[in-house]
Amino acid sequence: MRGVEPIHTNKGLAHKDVVLNAEHEARLPQELLNPFYKNPRIAEALAKESWFGPGEEHVANREAEKIPRLEVIKLLKQAGLARRR
Question: What is the pTM of this model?
Answer without folding.
Answer: 0.44
